Amino acid sequence: MSFFDQLHPDWKEILSGLLPELQELDQLLKDQEIAPAYSKVMRALSTPISSIRVVIFGQDPYPGMNHADGLAFSVPDSLRPLPPSLKNIFKELEVDCSIPIRESGDLGRWADQGVLLLNRILTNVPGRRLAHVEVGWKEVTNEVARTLGERGVVAILWGKNAQELAGFFDLDRTISSPHPSPLSAYRGFFGSRPFSRANAILLKSNQQVIKW
After folding, report:
1. Is 60 an annotated catalytic residue?
2. What is the mean pLDDT of the chain?
3. Which of 10, 26, 31, 60 is catalytic?
4. Do 116 and 210 touch, CB atoms closer than 8 A?
């Protein structure tokens, strides 16, 4: 199933103007070994726009073999050990919301509550980072961010690549910090309290909080 056909009908309508670019990406990547698997590249955008209340933008998929599952920062339930970035996310969640660190790295429970987990760049090459930074994904995620910003979605932007999208969102509905990677987590990710801050924004606009 092509990248475009993997999209929810809502996103097909929004991204229809980028169909030629998506077709080019299909031709470029369909026969390559990529992360996540080809069939999961658009997993995050397979849900209706109306269900999305919070978006977490990251950088690019995990390069570890069989780590990326189509949701940014998420990994399959059976994967052990967890990637370092995800461990740091859970550490911050414990401090921020008193939620014990989980063994499972599957973040599908967040997605089910209306949290869009999307990387700035949607594919990678196993064993490499930012391998596909220049292939055309940023045009796609720009349009996603523009749409979500217009709908007043709360944006959590982790790292410089994600923060390129800050202009699409209202300042008072945007939470930015360094990436949770071990290379940058101690430069401001730890202590940023993104989960409680996002819930406070939701409450202020009479929306249901996320059960992180």
Report:
1. yes
2. 97
3. 60
4. no
